[in-house]
Amino acid sequence: MKLLLISDTHLPARARELPPQVWAEVAAADVVVHAGDWVEVALLDELEARSKRLIGVYGNNDGPDLRARLPEIARADLDGVRLAVIHETGAKQGREQRCDAQFPDTDVLVFGHSHIPWDTVTPSGLRLLNPGSPTDRRRQPYCTYQTAVVREGALVDVELHQLPRRG
Questions:
Q1: Where's the Calcineurin-like phosphoesterase domain (predicted)?
Q2: Which pTM was predicted?
Q3: Residue 85 — φ and ψ, nearest 5°?
Q4: Which phi and psi angles does 12 have, rounded to 5°?
Q5: Within 13 Å, how many C-alpha atoms sit on residue 101's CB side?
Q6: pLDDT surpassing 90 at residue 14
Q7: Rounded percentage of the chain residues whose pLDDT exceeds 90
Q8: From the CB of residue 14, how many other CB atoms can be counted at a distance below 10 Å?
């Protein structure tokens, strides 16, 4: 099962649309995960139409229209991998311990908010993933997203992808 992980798209505030490379990943993915800060509902509609399966949450920049359609925390079982998605996890210091306490029955937690890619494993074995942003690099050198594969009940082949800089 192929996964695409994105967050903090901020459309149309930070970009007019998702980059073509990300839309190609949407087409290839079995599951698209969006960790919030969509900003406008049009992208949610388009991802729902173009994704085989979409799991998403709202972020701090998402208004009532998105909050009416998306949860604060989403959970799913992906062929034995217990996934949770949330927009914010708080400061990086102490993140692993906070997430262990908040998500004890989770194998993988996807989050966003910082626009900073993140990939760590907590003391309890929880995998923490932040794909960064495919549209707003902030202080990062590149806009980013992640892909991964669920195989035999495990998350494997997690890869961070850098997008070409926009002119």
A1: 1-147
A2: 0.97
A3: -135, 135
A4: -95, 20
A5: 6
A6: no
A7: 93
A8: 18
The encoded tokens of residue 44 equal 């949610």
More confident residue, 98 or 139: 98
56-75, pLDDT tens digit by residue? 999 999 999 999 999 999 99
Own/partner contacts of 49-56, CB < 8 Å, gap of 24 or more, are 50/23, 50/26, 51/26, 55/31, 55/83, 55/85, 56/85
- Tell me the C-alpha distance between 38 and 50, whole Å: 16
Which residues contact residue 49 at a Cβ distance below 8 angstroms, ignoring those fewer than 6 apart? none
Residue 127 phi/psi, 5-degree rounding, is -85, 125
CB 145 within 8 A of CB 132: yes
pLDDT at 167 over 80: no
As beta bridge partners, residue 83 has 76, 108
Chain centroid to CA 16: 19
Strand 73-78 versus strand 54-56 pairing type: unpaired
**Taking Cα atoms as reference points, which of 104, 115, 159 lies closest to residue 141?**
115
Residue 50 backbone dihedrals phi, psi, to 5 degrees: -100, -10
Residue 151 pLDDT > 60: yes
